[in-house]
Specification:
4 copies of one chain form a homotetramer. By secondary structure, chain A is mainly alpha-helical. Chain A has 11 helices and no strands. Helices cover about 80% and strands about 0% of the residues of chain A. The interface of A and B includes residues 57, 61, 62, 75 and 104 of A.
Chain lengths: ~230, ~230, ~230, ~230
């Protein structure tokens, strides 16, 4: 078993990229409540489409897992996304007059497509460790972001329109999911990792981290008069 | 949509093989209570290993599905196997002094290996329709067998040591799973089927049906003095 | 068999996207020789990385094919990329002082990543028809572009620095590859297609077509003072 | 890098199973020329079907490889099977009045199905190292068998009807393929192996070795009056 947890080693291996993701302007604006609703709305609708593919990735993780513990953790993750997390997005979007059918009919942004297919393909080409490392920036990163901004005195609490989003990822339930994902990474590293594999895993982690940052940027761009498309 | 349900067309396309499976001597002996315990024990222990791979196949089905309805049905199936059906096997085996760790350490019989890998590989090479057709002889066949022998006046009820096994697959819960699987096949056929695909799907269905019959035979052989190995 | 070839039906289903790809400014500038060398250089170096993933996609096509004819066509395509087409890119790049090791060490542009992973993942999730439809905009599109600009009197022939690129894709060898790919699409459509599948296949084709256009744009942006990133 | 080559470590980890395969009665009878033609004929016809799936496995290896060297080696292997090795089988079978169309129409024996799907599925679930370890008993084992019986003074040379089969696998061309496969295993082990992975890889190697032995047995059984089925 690594003395340092695998997740921490991966994060340290691309520290600037990691900060570019977890401290992205989108996150800062979520925390201080200044994020334009149009940015959040575009983000959340695309995140709904993203979650469909992430549930697929957890399905793949069931298939690729080599222990019942890992299979059950993956099945629980797939079910949580399909039965809970997507429902929360639908609830949010209902407030803006968007139905679930509307969400499903949305064109997929290129950032959504790029990130989700990267993770799925990495998991199919490699083994379950490659797959879980590709998933980690999302699963663990959201927990880290939620906990940090919930604890930050600079975060706007009263009247912050994004308070429930922050509360979800800072909440004990999600924090436990995050810790379980980190523990799973350490188990998989013990079973299938090696020093020689680290560089390749770190490249996967960095790519996925950058694709997460692009996903926040996509949200910001949606509210910007000089948006790219 | 086909006038005749896809499952019925597949079954009719290999009627003799289907009967060889659902009316196998193993099933007849389960029904009249004459099945040697050694046969059932070997079957059930291998079925535990089989279920691990079937849960993997449902994970793959989550990944391959193209609608949320199909994804949710697959996630529920994976969870039911991992959290319920495997537990029932463990309970049964406990009665024979076999722990779950014992089960996991068992060598996989060649019949278990042959059937499970066939289904998984078919699903990976083809699309979600190929995968679900490969799964159908198991999912639907067990429901058909359970319902038939439960309703058969010739079936021994009192003192039949396999009564709870029969009750599980004849029970309303499993019957509903079976009907949902048939409905899903029809949806997938509508979405992705064609007359030209039918012959290939029928070959998959027939192969999986034969592999199911081999699985029963493996159970019988385990209790036979002239067992193959 | 369709009265109209599948490729033509797919192209017609997203005519504006198709024109946005095959008549992209990058292509027009290749034809009249006005494309900045920096644009072509960036494009070609990324296309080298792209080809690695396309060879992987043809490997996947060998695995997914259901006839020896399709397997052999896929093996020939993988070999042609690995042993010929990549070598031509290496030759070109040598002229700019870039070695093959330099090419392999290049960071993958997000457009390269987005397109290649989309195709691979589509092929893994679906069947061989889904995979070949995702590959078609590249395989057939390059042949169409090459033939059109080679035949266009407006194309600069003498002194056009991109003449050999045009000659390669307009050449009889590549034109035959293109025709064989179209014939293969028709065979696969006959074997596995259906009216109900068409919309989904058309969406795959449209997505891949747009990702091709993004790939040209990436080349142009590399030479633009106001490049996106 | 291992001091002992990975292949040798794998072989040593299941020495009795390995001998059961490379010294199988089928092989001994091939060497002394006493193998009934019916046994060889059944074996060779099933081996033709086997090769189709092995070419698919090499296609998968192209997809899963992480270096151009490994991709090229896999593409060459797929091409050699599709364009050379299958042709040799077709030639042989022609002598018995079997056309290639006859071969393709043969029902797949359960031993063929079991072995090929096991290898393919292992490769899909795991990474390229898992896949190559599953392929190794076939690729390397045939070379070892060919070399050993060609060098054995007890082997019947003159008038042995299986002389050309022996010559093919003992020949320098195949021996070079075998050595290249062993070198590839060592490269992959260096890149992705670890002590913790060894037990799992050894189990894969042992399973594939047993499935090879079952494949020889299938040949013998075909010529036996007490054949299993």
């Amino acid at each position: 078993m690594p003395e340092t947890a695998l997740f921490d080693r991966l994060k340290d291996s691309c520290a600037a990229d990691w900060r570019g993701y977890v401290e992205h302007a989108f996150v800062a604006k979520l925390a201080d409540g200044s994020l334009p609703e149009a940015a959040f709305r575009h983000y959340l609708a695309q995140d709904y489409l993203f979650l469909i593919h992430f549930a697929r990735a957890w399905g793949l993780a069931i298939y690729k897992s080599e222990t019942l513990e890992d299979m059950r953790q993956a099945a629980a993750a797939a079910t949580a996304i399909l039965d809970v997390e997507m429902g929360l997005h639908v609830e949010y979007c209902k407030g803006w007059g968007l139905t679930e059918a509307d969400l499903q009919a949305l064109p997929e942004a290129s950032e959504t497509m790029a990130y989700t297919r990267y993770v799925l393909e990495r998991g199919l080409a490699g083994d379950v460790l490659d797959l879980q490392v590709a998933l980690a920036p999302c699963v663990v990163g959201y927990g880290e972001i939620g906990a940090r901004i919930a604890a930050d005195p600079g975060t706007k609490q009263d009247g912050n329109p994004y308070r429930s989003w922050i509360a979800m990822y800072a909440g004990e339930e999600y924090q436990e999911v995050m810790r379980a994902a980190q523990a799973q990474l350490d188990r998989l590293w013990t079973a299938r990792g090696s020093d020689a594999r680290f560089a390749r895993l770190a490249a996967t982690f960095r790519d996925a981290t950058r694709l997460e940052a692009d996903f926040w940027q996509m949200g910001l761009d949606a509210a910007s008069p000089t948006a790219r498309r």
